[in-house]
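Re: beginner question about structure tokens

> Can someone show what the tokenized structure looks like for a real chain? I only ever see the sequence side.

Sure, here's an example I had lying around. Input first:
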Amino acid sequence: MPYLIDGHNLIGRLPDLSLSDPDDEAQLVARLRGYMARRGKRCTVIFDRGLPGGPSRRLSTHSVQVVFAHGGTTADAIILERIHEARDPGSLIVVSADREIVNAARRRRMRVMSPARFAAELNALPAPDQANDHDPHLTPDELAAWLELFDGEPGEDTD
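And the corresponding structure tokens:
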């Protein structure tokens, strides 16, 4: 199921990100890329105010589409528009705390997730460099066990 995410709602729920940081959107997008890649999912994250506005080719990837509100519109208005225009509303998960967005999504039978819950899921996954924190090298005893399993003898040349 693809996600439709209110970006600033989510940033406000992540303890290590701050809405006052000028790079907060890029930091969130980097985290979403890892999350979506590891889960095999896709999302669209929508932010208020951004330059140049509209879809961001610089930040977007195959799994994470990034959109900045521009002109006289807001992220909430863009999210509401996408909720109303969704062709398969039951396939979307909307991440927002905005009451109007939540109610509109529920009326269309979309799954709704609070930013706090999604932030908890985002924080529960290890960072990509921490996912495999074990030593990939075999000990001499492990090597001997594998060689024995495959009918070899430790130190025996099998050529």
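Each token stands for a local structural state, so reading them left to right follows the chain. The beta strands are 3-6, 43-47, 54-55, 64-68, 93-95, 111-113.
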